[in-house]
Amino acid sequence: MTKTLKTRRQFVSTTMIGLLVAPSLLRAQEQEPSAVRRNISSFSADPWQDHFDNLQHGAILCDIDSRAVQYWSEDESVYKLYPSSVPASEELTRRGYTKVIRKVEGPSWRPTPSMKERNPEWPDYWPPGPDNPLGTHALYLSWQYYRVHGTGDTRKIGRQSSNGCIGLYNEHIAELFALAEVGTQVRIF
User: Fold this and answer.
1) Which parts of the sequence belong to the L,D-TPase catalytic domain (predicted)?
2) Torsions phi, psi of 156, nearest 5?
3) What does the alpha-carbon distance between residue 2 and residue 99 come to, in Å, rounded to a whole number?
4) Smallest Cα–Cα separation from 187: which of 112, 105, 97?
5) Largest CA distance in the chain
């Protein structure tokens, strides 16, 4: 491809394809460019200064509209951008500032009371393991019941599919888990 990139959006889109898309998906893009580009182009890379006063303890930005999670380290040496799942409806979405208060590798899971009302057939407790809805790692936020966590159901990523949490591929949450610390500031918008 020898075209000159004309806009920042084209540059970001091209960069994201190179960073986030598997080779098989690139082959799919050659065959069906509109389907893949429409999916990738929704990612939005925002400067941290538009959302945070500083990077003390690092920062995680969860963009509901673009279904992406960004991370900046305190010294700005690390920047990551991940595709994510987001809440299934505006009613389930909480927006604002919070922080990581706990990190758990191999989390267990209990549905919230409102989840049990909507889904009475769900178990009261799910132990850690491959079928756990929180995946392999979870970052617990200061808001009760809200997490940034993994998922083994990769169909959820890039979709409005959660009960309020932000979901990442298990390999991405493992990476973010290693980077984030208790006290990392979080904004969901």
Assistant:
1) 58-189
2) -75, -25
3) 44
4) 97
5) 56
Token digits for 150? 């993994």
Question: What DSSP line would sit under 18-73, residue for residue?
Answer: HHH--HHHHHHHHH-HHHHHHHHTT-----GGGT-S--TT-EEEEETTTTEEEEE-
Residue 49: how many other CB atoms lie within 10 Å: 10
**What span, in angstroms and rounded, lies between the C-alpha atoms of 147 and 165?**
5
- 35-79 pLDDT, tens per residue? 333 344 466 788 999 999 999 999 999 999 999 999 999 999 999
Read off the pLDDT of residues 99-140 as tens digits, 9 standing for 90 and up.
999 999 999 999 999 999 999 999 999 999 988 999 999 999
Tokens of 5: 């990139």
Question: pTM (2 decimals)?
Answer: 0.78
First to last CA, the chain: 35
Which amino acid, one-letter code, is at 39?
A: N
Helix intervals (H) in 88-166: 113-118
Residues carrying an active site annotation:
149, 165
